[in-house]
Each structure stands twice: as structure tokens, then as C-alpha cells.
Write a structure and sequence with these properties.
alpha/beta
């Protein structure tokens, strides 16, 4: 039984889009001059309903209305852009076949897409904030039941407690042994699942059992299906971080290809490289030619030493590259101590200059790496390259660490936009970062790259607290 309040909220997202599309259409007619110049305005206004139908069709194909409350807003913006692309293709096709009935100019389409993007982004952001406020007040929680007191269950609990606005409230857990699980109420053994679901208080079941309990997992799914309760499996991230699950068929038999990577395909490599070249050129043309000299001059004025810091790091296939950054530490300081261990920057590190602290929190110290992107040893998006000493320290202690080097490193990455950056004193901190990197490698898409870039830009203005 799904949360009825959540269903009402999803319905509102559909309803609110109608006036947004109408307003965007009217604004496009006005700014393109079609209203003033057209003699048959009735056709223009009637075509509004066609535009609305096309928008909902495009949004349906792009899954714009899927529940993304637990995802970053940058992902929602990417889906708005995706919807706009489909919308533009469909509407331009319809306009071509109905050109005897109504005619639109290129200016009209430009203003329509701009208005839709701006208004849709504002609308979705307001709805998201209203949803978060409703969840904070306790009005839209989904009651979650966890099956299995495993490490993945503990990770899930930590996540929903940290990010309350995901809207999940755990009412308890089941396990064949009575255990402590982050102060969550123990509700009995796993075979007690039907009795709890009968009560009608559970909106969703999270199955966090280990994969070798396949029969027990299947049994739980069947019980959830019987009571029409949504069930999801929470896998062990450590177990699957180094694998890619692509499902293919041999006849009617499904098989899983564990080592098939998106960037193994030549067409994806070419697409990513073309994007890197165009994006870095665009950066230098719009910002780099004037911003980089100003930052370099500021570094020189505020502290003695070179403006650019060169550091050996590891790139694709462990190949050593020279990574360029604006210097953020005092020139006399070294990144390796007397014992040969890499000294990571710490919070309030005395080696970091005042200007350097600002550049680190806004990622501005990384801007010279667009040159690395242009010459091809880095990408705009990818796992962040680590200094050689840190690689040597981590490769023997962190699981699957070297797998991050099977793709070109990036200026920004999935780990960075998810807060896994800064100092990694504990093994778990570095492992978390590597798991994010491996997730990116195995699930790369052009849209994921776009989302990461957008989130990085947002983080520049928000100032990342883990960047120091």
C-alpha cells in the first residue's frame, strides 16, 4: 500500500505543469511578435492545447515526473533539458505538417524553449522545497520496514537519518537473530513479515539480506507481492562496487555481463572526447583568457612563489601525468613528509594560504586543468587523479583502488559532487570515494556527465564544506 499523500503530491506535479506550458507558449508568441503580426490569432491559441499534449508526451518518455526526492536537484534539471529536447523534436515535426494551419518562426521556438526551461526549473525547485518542508513537518513520510540486520541495512539507515528530506521513516527491522541496529526497533524474525504487513502500516520493504540468502529474498518478495507492498533490495555496496551489471539474453535465458563498461565502446569514447574538447575550448574563450591571469596575479601578490603548481599524478592505465593547479599552499611547504608519506590537506591547515582556502572551497584552483583536458590526459568529468604517493599508499589497502584508472581522470567527478572529497585519514573515507568512482565508471552516460558538471557549478556557489 503506497503512501496516498505522496500520490497526491505527484499528481500536483503533473497539474502545475499545465499553467507553466501555457505561460511559456504565450510568452513565446509575444516576444517573437507572432501575436502582433498574425491575423488569425484563434489558431495560435488553439494550438496551445497541442503544445501541452506534446509536452506531456515528451515528459512521459523522459520520465520527468519520476520520484527524485532522494536525488540531487541537478539531476532533475538534466531531465528537464532531456524533456525539452524531445519536446522540440516532436513539436517541430508537428509544426511542419501543420504549416498550412499555423506558422512558427525560429525565434518563437527559441523563446518557447527558454521560457519553458526557466519556468520549469523554478517550478520544480519550489515543489522540491515544499516537499522537503512537508516531510520535515512529518506529513509525507513513507514508513519503511527493513529485512536483515546487515551492513547495507546500517548504511541505509544512516543515509535516511542524515538526509531526512528523502522522506523515509524506518518503523523497525526483521532478522532471524535479535541484534542492535542503530537504535531501530526489532520486530521479530523474518518469517514474521506477513503479520507486520497485515497491519497496513508499512509503505515499503527494504530487503537488505546478503546475496547468498537468495531463497529467503525471493520469499520476502513473494510476501510483499501478495500484500501489494513495494519491495526493494538494498545490495551490499562493497560487494558490487567493482562490478558492472549489464543484462543480456541468450535465447530466453538472461545472463549478466559483469565487466562490460560504457566507456569500452568506441562511440562513447569519441563522444566524451569531443565534448571535452568543445567544453574546454568554450571555457578558454569565455572565461579562461581573462580569469586565469587575474587568479595567477592574485596568487603572486598574496604569497611568494610560482602561481602554478605542478604535481605528478596517475592518469589512464596508471600512466603518470603532470597535473596543473593554482598554488594554494605556501611555496616552502612540501606535500610529502620526512618519512615519505603524503600529507593531505587538513581543515584549517596552516600550509594553506587565505586565498588558497577560498580557491579550494570553490574549486577555482583546479581551473588550469582545462589545459590537461585540452591535451587529452584528463577529462572534464571522471575520477579525480591522486598524487603518486597517495596512490602508492592506497593501492594496497583500498579494495578495487586501481580500477579507477581504467578511465581518464577528471577535473570533477561523481565522488566530489557527493561530498566524498577532502582529507581521507580513515580507510573507510577513501573506500567510499573509490566506490563512488566505480559507480561512475560502470554507469557512465552523457547525461550523468552533464549532471555532475551542473552540480559542480552549484557547489561552487554553495561552497563545499569538505573542500579545504
Amino acid at each position: 500500500m503506497a503512501n496516498p499523500k505522496s500520490h497526491k503530491y505527484v499528481l500536483l506535479r503533473y497539474i502545475f505543469d499545465a499553467p507553466i506550458v501555457f505561460c511559456s507558449y504565450l510568452l513565446a508568441l509575444y516576444f517573437s511578435g507572432i501575436i502582433a503580426s498574425s491575423e488569425n490569432n484563434s489558431n495560435n491559441y488553439l494550438f496551445t492545447f497541442v503544445v501541452l499534449a506534446v509536452w506531456y508526451t515528451a515528459a512521459s518518455f523522459s520520465r520527468l515526473y519520476a520520484d527524485r526526492r532522494s536525488n540531487k536537484f541537478s539531476e532533475e534539471i538534466i531531465f528537464i533539458i532531456y524533456s525539452l529536447i524531445l519536446f522540440a523534436i516532436l513539436l517541430s515535426s508537428i509544426s511542419f505538417f501543420s504549416r498550412s494551419f499555423i506558422k512558427f518562426t525560429s525565434e518563437f521556438f527559441f523563446f518557447l524553449l527558454c521560457a519553458l526551461f526557466i519556468l520549469q526549473t523554478i517550478e520544480k525547485y519550489i515543489i522540491r522545497k515544499l516537499l522537503h518542508a512537508a516531510i520535515f513537518q512529518g506529513g509525507l513520510y513513507d514508513n519503511i520496514l527493513i529485512v536483515g540486520a546487515t551492513s547495507s541495512a546500517l548504511d541505509f539507515l544512516d543515509t535516511i537519518h542524515r538526509y531526512y528530506y528523502y522522506g523515509y521513516k524506518c518503523i523497525g527491522f526483521l532478522d532471524d537473530e535479535k541484534k542492535e541496529l542503530n537504535e531501530t526497533e526489532y520486530l521479530g524474525k523474518i518469517d514474521n513479515l506477513p503479520n507486520i504487513l497485515k497491519q497496513g502500516t508499512v509503505d515499503e520493504v527494504m530487503i537488505a539480506l546478503d546475496s547468498f540468502n537468495s531463497q529467503q529474498i525471493q520469499s520476502c518478495i513473494e510476501v510483499c507481492d501478495y500484500y501489494r507492498i513495494k519491495a526493494r533490495i538494498v545490495p551490499n555496496v562493497q560487494q558490487y562496487a567493482g562490478a558492472s551489471g549489464q543484462v543480456n539474453n541468450i535465447g530466453l535465458l538472461p545472463v549478466i555481463n559483469i565487466r562490460s563498461l560504457p566507456l569500452d565502446k568506441q562511440e562513447n569514447k569519441i563522444l566524451k572526447r569531443i565534448f571535452d574538447i568543445l567544453f574546454s575550448l568554450l571555457f578558454f574563450i569565455i572565461l579562461g583568457w581573462w580569469l586565469l591571469p587575474i587568479i595567477a596575479l592574485a596568487v603572486k601578490i598574496t604569497s611568494k612563489g610560482p602561481a602554478i603548481f605542478k604535481q605528478e599524478r596517475w592518469g589512464l592505465n596508471n600512466k603518470k601525468i603532470t597535473c596543473y593547479k593554482f598554488r594554494t599552499m605556501l611555496a616552502k611547504e612540501h606535500d610529502v613528509d620526512n618519512n615519505g608519506y603524503y600529507q593531505q590537506a587538513t581543515r584549517n591547515d596552516p600550509r594553506v594560504t587565505k586565498l588558497g582556502a577560498f580557491m579550494r572551497s570553490t574549486n577555482m584552483d583546479e581551473l588550469p586543468q582545462f589545459w590537461n583536458v585540452l591535451i587529452g590526459n584528463m577529462s572534464v568529468v571522471g575520477p579525480r587523479p591522486h598524487p603518486t604517493p597517495l596512490n602508492i599508499e592506497s593501492m594496497h589497502t583500498i579494495e578495487n583502488y586501481m580500477l579507477r584508472h581504467i578511465v581518464t581522470p577528471g577535473i570533477t567527478g561523481w565522488a566530489q559532487v557527493n561530498g566524498a572529497r577532502g582529507e581521507t585519514k580513515e580507510t573507510g573515507s577513501m573506500q567510499k570515494r573509490i566506490n563512488f568512482d566505480l559507480y561512475y565508471i560502470h554507469r557512465w552516460t552523457f547525461w550523468l556527465d552533464s549532471q555532475i558538471i551542473l552540480q559542480t557549478i552549484i557547489n561552487i556557489f554553495r561552497r563545499d564544506q569538505n573542500a579545504y
